């Protein structure tokens, strides 16, 4: 039996506490299989890319990623090399000799993990034979017209073939394989059908049917136990995909998912309760200067202000120093991502701000890619006008400065009425006239192809947010992902997020939620929901999430209208904060980033590997169940001072951003709060040595 140091592992919530042997990684091989290895499609790419360093640090040269080969990705992201591991090298050589194209190298990301990439098209001639293999294994047939499912069959068959070759030459090493999502599931099904000696984990990041049902505006979470699963999948022509996903779940030794809310969904949709919840993390990089992220916020906010100056030229009658920048970003799923409830709440927020005669202006960005022709001419003109005014102001400033300098050298106080000549005044008057416009500032930066039917634009027309002068809420739809090379808003996504004040993500279907997590790591407050994995995670780990800049909208137990009112109150409360309160809140938000670090969350994956080895090889590995855990000891407490919370200690109408409350300053001791948070953010894995032969406590038993 393989022995190692004992490791105490606590689950995320309510799940048991486990005592497991620390794994001797030098005697194991770990493979992670996903369609998004080196191939960016969605959020799984971010999961694997950010987790790679933590896993590579733990497993070293015994960690491998398996994915599809695409020539462009190979040339730009992968450095080819020869396998060091003998079993992997012989597996690659064997497959290449039998008519496959298998590429091996290091993925050029943090951690530089090894990658094994299969050329799907090169092996497509085996498709019919492999369809027969899948039918024999689990009686699932794939229609010829579903090209994506056919590609996944080829990918899964190559994966199972590769793992067989590895296990044939692995000598005494045990193999662990983790498969992400249904796209990689066929490799797991075939591996188990062929009885390969490997320990398998299947991770679902979102159920197939769940995503389809939520997109159809169905009251999903309140009817989880009432769906006829087979009928719903069949009506959407994804029954074969659903069968592949469900077979993968039930074939795996261990089934994991990314959040508690998705665990509930998976239990009803896939008919198996997840064994472990493995939350998604990020690589958190701390600045050497404690408040450097605040400086970055100020710097990138100034760049967003420049864009706003151009976009609203001729209508810039609001104070940019009292303007808040909000944004929503992600796939263009109007209902799933909560754009519908967000727009409705913006209409109500606009009413509240106008009713209270607030001098706060809110500019909201929708960063959601859609089909467009090109940039809107009026938007480009706005940036050109802004640049022209900037150049004129600089030229006049230089002439003014030179005359002032000469006068001071002569010991004179210049006559301000004569320091600017007639030509200067003419140039400035022409510049002012050039800022006049007959139309309202556009609500979109691009020409939309489906302008009349676009859900966001249709809702904007219905609620009447047209960027009028009287509107305190202004809306800008940017239907394209941000890029530093854009002639319109030349900023990367990270820079843009740092420059905003609040990210708003009131999603109805969000198995995890990387967008609010990224905001948190950058010290930017965000709005999420109790139907997102991130929101549930924060509710569990933070006593008062709002005080830490995490606003959680209840979309599970409230009606849509009540949820919309709650979101409106969150936004209105945020507008009521003073500049000092927002700074305090950003400091607290940034401190939560430790909770989202892979060095903290990666150990849930470690626990899943322990568990799968104990089930696949019970004679060599074991897991013992002990008493249930409590969450005390690593939960952020409610701060002693609560000025950033919209529910407390604020005036009834919005304040200007330069208003500060001296009483609140006295109550707030940042260093004391930060130190208390550091003490409370303890790892959920108490790495405690348990001597061999220790007497079991009451309630312990073998699993």
UniProtKB/TrEMBL annotation:
For this protein, the record's Gene3D superfamilies field holds: Glycogen Phosphorylase B
The record's annotation in InterPro entries points to: Glycogen_synth
Residue stretches of biased makeup (Acidic residues): 658-668
Q: Which domain of life is it from?
A: Eukaryota
Cite the annotated pathway.
Glycan biosynthesis; glycogen biosynthesis
A cellular component term, taken from the record's GO annotations: cytosol
Whether Zinc counts among this entry's keywords is no
Per its UniProt record, what SUPFAM superfamilies does this chain match?
Answer: UDP-Glycosyltransferase/glycogen phosphorylase
Q: Which GO terms describe its biological process?
A: glycogen biosynthetic process
Q: Locations of Basic and acidic residues compositional bias?
A: 669-680
- Give the region (Disordered) as residue ranges: 628-703
Q: List the Pfam families hit by this protein, alphabetically.
A: Glycogen_syn
E.C. code: 2.4.1.11
- What segments bear the compositional bias annotation Low complexity? 647-657
Instruction: Look up keyword Transferase and say if it applies.
Output: yes
What sort of enzyme, by top EC class, is this?
Answer: transferase
Q: Which UniProt keywords apply?
A: Allosteric enzyme, Glycogen biosynthesis, Glycosyltransferase, Phosphoprotein, Transferase
* One GO MF term: glycogen synthase activity, transferring glucose-1-phosphate
Q: Which reaction does it catalyse?
A: [(1->4)-alpha-D-glucosyl](n) + UDP-alpha-D-glucose = [(1->4)-alpha-D-glucosyl](n+1) + UDP + H(+)
The entry sums up its family as follows:
Belongs to the glycosyltransferase 3 family.
Functional note: Glycogen synthase participates in the glycogen biosynthetic process along with glycogenin and glycogen branching enzyme. Extends the primer composed of a few glucose units formed by glycogenin by adding new glucose units to it. In this context, glycogen synthase transfers the glycosyl residue from UDP-Glc to the non-reducing end of alpha-1,4-glucan.
UniProt protein name? Glycogen [starch] synthase
- Source species of the chain: Papio anubis
